[in-house]
Amino acid sequence: MKKIIVIIIIIFSLLSCSKSGGSSNSNFSSITSAPPPAPQARMMQEEETVSDYAESSDSVNNNAERKLIISADIRINSKDVEKTYKSVEEKLKEYNGYFDNVESSKNRYYLTIRIPKENLFNFISFIEQNENIENKNINTQDVTETYYDTENRIKNREVLLEKLRNYLREARNIDEILKVEDRINTLTYEIETMKGNLKNLQSSIDYSKVTLNISNPEAIKSNTNIYNKYLNLISFLKEFFSGIIFFLIGFVAVAIPITLVLALFYYICFGKIGLIKKLYRKIK
Asked: For residue 35, what is the enclosing H or E element?
């Protein structure tokens, strides 16, 4: 009998433990389970994740193509600047280049040229072989890091933009909709701006800039001497006529008062008044 009572007590103890364990598990599950975050909170979490990824990821891969901007500045002495200009124009067409800017004056051309980078050094070799180069300067700027960094930032922002558009569909109230739309507009503007910068950068990479200063120093010097002689002649004539005019003005300024005084003296002494005449008659 005692054994039966002990067995019953043990069974009830086991049953009570299993019930308490089930209730504690249910309480734990109820505590750990939480409602999903709101679209606005999820938007901020995703944006922080994308930003962290953009900052931590390497923008330049070791195997990536180097992005170089090559420019050249060349000064040419030419006895016939028109002929040199024409030859440059023809060769530029052959190499698929174009004039970005043309400035000209007598015996001088200043040209800004854009030419595909693969044809740049062939074009420079042509000039060296056919023209008298006074000075040449070639500059190379490595923009690899800037290029790939901008490219990665665009990709990351485009991913974030797509997520924001999805969050916009899940927005629960007007305030959330306005905040998400404002962030979408800002992000879209940033993407378009970066795409424009990347396009300009790619254009500078693909088409090298060449500035050509073509001049005829001898003709310019001769023209300068003639011009200086002309200026000297003009200066001399100005001084000569200025002196004559000054003399005439001075002469008139002095002569008129003297003439008036003499006329008055003659009028008083020998004219109608004739004081000297009268005095002479009395003495006589």
From this structure: none
d(CA 172, CA 162): 18
Dump pLDDT digits (tens) for 8-17.
555 556 555 4
Cα–Cα distance measured from residue 39 to residue 166, given in angstroms and rounded to the nearest whole number: 9
Place of tokens 């024409």: 86
H-run or E-run covering 276: helix 275-283
Three-state secondary structure call for residue 71: strand
Strands, E assignment, the chain: 68-77, 98-105, 108-116, 132-142, 207-215
The backbone torsions φ and ψ at residue 142, rounded to the nearest 5 degrees and listed phi first, read -90, 115
Distances, alpha carbon 34 to alpha carbons 22, 150, 163, in Å: 20, 39, 22
pLDDT band at 96 (very low <50, low <70, confident <90, very high): very high
Q: Using DSSP, state whether 164 is helix, strand or coil.
A: helix
Backbone angles phi, psi at 131, to 5 degrees: -130, 165
User: Whole-angstrom Cα distance, residue 16 to residue 121?
Assistant: 91
pLDDT of residue 113 exceeding 90, the answer is yes
pLDDT confidence tier of residue 36, bands split at 50, 70 and 90: very low
141: Cα within 13 Å, side-chain hemisphere: 13
Task: Look at residue 9 in the predicted model and tell me its pLDDT.
Answer: 57
DSSP state of 72: E
Model-level pTM greater than 0.70?
A: no
pLDDT given for residue 30 in this prediction: 36
Contacts of 277 (CB under 8 A, 6+ apart): 269, 270
> At residue 137, does pLDDT exceed 50?
yes
**E strand or H helix that includes residue 36:** none
- Is 73 within 8 Å of 181 (Cβ atoms)? no
Mean pLDDT across 262-277: 66
